[in-house]
Design a protein that fits this description.
The chain is an alpha+beta fold. The chain has helices at about 5-10, 35-40, 60-84; strands spanning about 20-25, 40-45, 50. The protein has a three-stranded antiparallel beta sheet. A hairpin with a 5-residue loop joins strand 2 and strand 3. The termini are far apart. It binds zinc ion (ZN).
């Protein structure tokens, strides 16, 4: 077992307030358990800002892309089920 907190904690801290205490987000309403893991979703413990710990930027565009992908996959599944 690796320490999740240390793995995701960035040595430069939060991009907005510089706070060193950040934690990996395990679950979000938009991505369930997989989405935040794919996007390296990290939350600052001080200002609650969420960002990508790899790119050190806000994950907003990533969340939009993830949502569109989910929608396309869901649409394709419905399409193929109805085709039969
Ligand atoms: Zn912060």
């Amino acid at each position: 077992m690796t320490d999740q907190l240390n793995e995701f904690t960035n040595e430069n801290g939060c991009p907005t307030c510089g706070n060193m205490l950040t934690s990996a987000v395990k679950y979000t309403w938009w991505g369930g358990f997989i989405g935040p893991k794919l996007l390296h979703h990290t939350k600052c413990n001080a200002c609650k800002f969420t960002y990508n710990s790899k790119s050190r930027r806000s994950n907003t565009s990533g969340i939009i892309i993830y949502s569109i992908l989910l929608f396309v996959v869901a649409f394709a599944m419905v399409f193929f089920i109805n085709k039969k």
